[in-house]
Amino acid sequence: MNRFFWFFVRAMIGGIFIYSGFTKLIEPIENFRYLLNEYTVFPKALVPAITIVFPWLEVVLGVFLITGYLTRFSALVLTGFSFGFVFVLVLSRWILGIWPDSCGCFGESGLKITVPQILMIDTINVLLGFQLFRMREHWLTLDRWLCGSGRLARKQAP
Amino acid sequence: MDRKIITRYLLTGIFLVGSLVLTVQWARSQQERTSPVLRQDFKTKGRIEAPITIVEYSDFQCPACRAAAQTAQKILSQYPKDIIFVFRHFPLRGHPISMIAHQAAECAAEQRQFWPFHDRLYQDQAVWGVALKPAETFLQYAKEMQLDLEAFAACLASPEVTAKIEAEKEEGNAHAVRATPTFFIGEERFVGAIELEKKGIPLIEELRKRGS
């Protein structure tokens, strides 16, 4: 039961990031750049680079987490993304007094999620993602397959 | 970790990332990326023969669009012979009064008063945006502009007008417009007034030099 639950958690967090990154990647890049510029906490000089790199990281690490490739590393980085996003939103709202119309998390297409909703989702992601990182063993992972199963896998899985 | 495992990891990583890159490239190739086609109606500004067309998808209740209207006007004044400016309705889902404001503007357009009404809507955005009965506010604007009030009121209630606005929004959706204001100069897209000013003006200059 436990392993099914954590596999579901991996699929859920990975799925959210894949969807989020994929919608940004197939949309015109200008849409995401505009949304990032709305969050005034991002240094303007970094926005073009973030616009290009971030969606790819979301998709790649989302797939890594689901397939269990570098599972703990992927969980840690995606937890960091979720935490960073909560931090940026809270900073925008309470320090700079800005509350964007929409989070822009899904490239403004398809799912329309409000900022409070995404805050809740990201907070859950942080808690569950961090727990995934702390766990040494995961069920159905490429890590186990690549390292060989059993004791060796436990020792060598990154 | 021994070398064999590292090699396996590297090959698997390359396979996963490579598959993803191919998938994204394929998905991108399926997306239609064309520029909106100019249709002559009363929502254009500038010379109809002008060689450069700027199309804007805008929402009357969006504060960024209000700011962008000034930028667009500035650009139009800067290049009066070269640009024709086209307005397209794009009322956002998150702005509840926006749709009726677009309907009112469309009704003003039917009486050839789109641009004065457009300017008034942006100018008084903070007023009608919080009005309990926005339709009454728009009727008042129409009265002040000496429009035919009976025709205006009938138009405001017309489902055909709503359908026309929805069709323009759908056209925007088909061009992957997701935020307002989004401008197009040819196939180039500029989201927000800052982008239009920073990147659109150099493009206009370049197009003028090329004589297109």
Please characterize this protein's 3D structure.
The complex is a heterodimer of chains A (158) and B (212). Chain A has seven helices and no strands. Chain A has helices at residues 2-26, 29-38, 47-67, 71-95, 115-134, 142-147, 151-156. By secondary structure, chain A is an all-alpha fold. In chain A, 72% of the residues lie in helices and 0% in strands. Chain B is of the alpha+beta class and 212 residues long. Chain B has nine helices and five strands, in the order αββαβααααααββα. Chain B has helices at residues 3-30, 63-78, 98-110, 114-123, 125-128, 134-144, 149-156, 159-174, 193-210; strands spanning 44-46, 52-58, 83-89, 182-185, 188-191. In chain B, strands 1-3-2-4-5 form a five-stranded mixed β-sheet. In chain B, helix 2 (63-78) runs parallel beside helix 9 (193-210) and helix 6 (134-144) packs antiparallel against helix 7. The radius of gyration of chain B is 22 Å and the shape is elongated. At the A-B interface, helix 1, helix 2, helix 3 and helix 6 of A face helix 1 and strand 5 of B.
